[in-house]
Specification:
- By secondary structure, the chain is of the alpha+beta class.
- It folds into three domains: 32-78 and 99-130, no CATH class; 134-229, Beta Barrel (OB fold (Dihydrolipoamide Acetyltransferase, E2P)), CATH 2.40.50; 275-522, no CATH class.
- The protein contains 18 helices and eleven strands.
- The chain has helices at 32-46, 53-76, 97-130, 133-140, 231-247, 275-284, 292-300, 311-324, 330-348, 352-370, 376-390, 398-421, 427-450, 458-465, 469-482, 487-512, 524-542, 544-573, and strands at residues 144-150, 155-157, 163-173, 176-177, 181-186, 198-203, 205-206, 216-219, 223-227, 453-455, 518-520.
- The strands form two sheets. Strands 1, 2, 3, 4, 5, 6, 7, 8 and 9 form a nine-stranded mixed β-sheet that branches. The chain has a two-stranded antiparallel sheet with strand order 10-11.
- Helix 12 packs antiparallel against helix 13 and helix 15 (469-482) runs antiparallel to helix 16.
- The radius of gyration is 32 Å and the shape is globular.
Length: 594
């Protein structure tokens, strides 16, 4: 007969089996105030007018002076390291005032330093933009001649498909050196210009809303290609073209991005429409050739994050590399992981979600090199602070916001959601549903600000689409690396990616065509706050503790109501306090005389 479990060990009645094996790790939220402060200060500062660098510099100096004031109590503060701390005041309930002040100052010092540093870097950015020739030409309003490099693959913008959108890194404005970028709009001819090409154009600059990284908007009717892609962008463009050739072109396509993937499903084509164009999007984040109908279907069911390289891609690549190099010393593995991470960022092009995932991966690699276990939540806080410190315009990038929200939601709520779902679902299915559920709940308020609608089938679509995503990602990356020197092998390696993308295209189109797939929602900040409040209400209503408290409260109120009702009835039946009870008078008899 097996021995009885020791008290406090094993499974207890009513406890979820997913939480019975080991205690949950504590949440390390020490960097959360610092990250939120840096993010909020950067979002506010970059939206100031271009000439506000002086006021931002003054605020940064004031933050630095206040930090110096807080530094003295912080240096005097010594926190107790254990319960039996022999130092005076550690065991007394009357803690000295300077220790309390030191603890409070230590909590305020790091957010203050982060906010002041962000103000300083933003002031430097504003000063540089004010003195840039592009800003001067924008203020004059006269036509200028721009020479620059296309830094993003041109793609069709708008529902009608009449405008092509890209980004131009400006090298010179009327012969003067510039370091800013512009948003470039053009016609169909711009689709034939690959990323990395050097252009010259003559146009008039138009202002963009405050807070944009690009300095101006340019509509180019005519332009001249000065040089083909070269350098790092030329290498990236060649690798992307190799993957596109390995995946193949949609039959019946005319070569125009707007027509690719719109061919009929007849003939010898074994894949659904848009499958071949989805392969580069899933592996490299290159979704410029994605057909409009498939893009809209993926947007309706919140599957567009699959074509935005983020933490999932970084985790898969780093996991494979570190596992394959498991026999090497940890520092060698960390160095190889850093090289692979850098190459991945260069290949998929640095965006908000990519940079956030890369910085988190770098922090975790530092932990691997040091032989210490790294925590994901502090790594997320470090990535937010570093990114908005280096580039304050990241604070207003929706890709960055969605990436941080999804990662934070998964780290904070995935374990609890899995435990709650594990009471009704198998453990593997609960783990599969928990991740997209918490990620969608965290991203929904941000998505409403982009598009005033809520996808009803977002969670089921992501649950069904999750299994083939790693296959498509790894297969597409391998085909990308093999394509330059072995095209036939790249086509073979691309077949699993094609099969996985075919499944994703079918899932997105089928669920997006269901009735009520998209529910209109109020737009703007009010709509985002309303959706967040609704999610909190649903979360509270689904909590078992809350339901148990409601049941106990209902029973208590019912019992109190019954007791009160019985007292009322008894009070009605009993005589009044000052009323004298009269004897019963028999019928037919007169009362006796005196």
């Amino acid at each position: 007969m097996p021995p009885a479990p020791a008290p406090g060990r094993g499974r207890r009645r009513g406890k979820d089996p997913a939480l019975a094996d080991r205690a949950p790790e504590p949440l390390d939220l020490r960097l959360a105030p610092t990250a939120l402060t840096a993010w909020g200060v950067a979002a506010w500062a970059v939206a100031r007018p271009a000439g506000s660098w002086r006021s931002l510099s003054v605020l940064a100096a004031l933050a630095g002076l206040l930090a110096l004031v807080l530094l003295r109590p912080v240096l005097r503060f010594r926190a107790a390291r254990h319960r039996d701390d022999p130092r005076p005041g550690s065991q007394s309930p009357d803690v000295p005032a300077h220790l309390v002040a030191g603890s409070l100052a230590a909590s305020l010092l790091l957010p203050l330093l982060a906010g002041g540093a962000v103000l300083g870097t933003t002031a430097a950015h504003q000063w540089s933009r004010c003195h840039d020739p592009l800003s001067t030409a924008l203020a004059r309003g006269t036509p200028v001649t721009l020479v620059g490099t296309v830094s993003r693959q041109p793609r069709v913008a708008g529902a009608r498909g009449e405008t092509v959108l890209t980004t131009l890194e400006v090298g010179s404005v009327d012969g003067r050196v510039s370091t800013m970028s512009v948003t470039l709009l053009g016609r169909d001819a711009l689709l034939d210009v690959p990323m990395g090409s050097r252009l010259r154009l003559h146009a008039t600059l138009r202002a963009l809303p405050a807070g944009q990284r690009e300095g101006a908007l340019v509509r180019a009717t005519t332009f001249r290609v000065l040089a083909p892609p070269s350098g790092v962008l030329g290498l990236v463009t060649g690798l992307r073209a190799g993957l596109a050739r390995a995946a193949g072109q949609e039959p019946g396509g005319s070569g125009d991005v707007r027509d690719r993937g719109r061919a009929a499903q007849g003939g010898d084509e074994p894949w659904p429409s848009g499958t071949r164009a989805l392969v580069p999007g899933l592996a490299l984040g290159d979704d410029h050739a994605l057909p409009t109908d498939l893009r809209e279907a993926m947007r309706d069911v919140s599957m567009t994050h699959l074509t935005a390289v983020s933490g999932e891609h970084v985790a898969m690549v780093l996991g494979l590399v570190l596992t394959a190099l498991g026999v090497l010393p940890r520092r060698w593995r960390a160095g190889a992981g850093a090289l692979v991470l850098t190459a991945l960022v260069v290949l998929v092009r640095p965006g908000g979600s990519v940079l956030r995932a890369a910085v988190m991966g770098a922090v975790l690699l530092v932990g691997v090199a040091a032989g210490r276990r790294s925590s994901a939540l502090p790594a997320l806080g470090v990535s937010v602070v570093l990114l908005v410190l280096v580039d304050p315009f990241q604070s207003r990038d929706y890709g960055f916001a969605l990436s941080v929200a999804a990662t934070g939601g998964i780290l904070l709520g995935a374990r609890g959601a899995q435990a709650a779902l594990g009471r009704y679902l198998p453990r593997w299915l609960a783990a599969l549903v928990a991740l997209p559920l918490v990620a969608q709940a965290a991203c929904a308020p941000v998505l409403v600000m982009l598009r005033p609608a809520v996808g009803v089938w977002a969670v089921p679509a992501n649950v069904v689409a999750a299994p083939p995503v790693p296959v498509a990602t790894v297969s597409g990356l391998l085909a990308t690396l093999v394509a330059p020197w072995w095209p036939w092998g790249a086509r073979v390696l691309a077949w699993p990616a094609l099969a996985a993308c075919a499944w994703l295209a079918l899932v997105s189109r089928c669920l997006a065509s269901l009735p009520g797939a998209v529910v209109p929602w109020p737009q703007g900040v009010a709509g985002a706050l309303g959706l967040a409040v609704l999610e909190v209400v649903i979360l509270v209503a689904c909590s078992r503790r809350v339901r148990g408290g409601c049941r106990r409260g209902a029973v208590l109120l019912t019992w109190a109501g019954l007791v009160l009702l019985e007292h009322v009835r008894a009070a009605r039946r009993a005589p009044g306090r000052h009323e004298v009870a009269r004897p019963h008078r028999a019928q037919g008899r007169s009362p006796p005389g005196p």
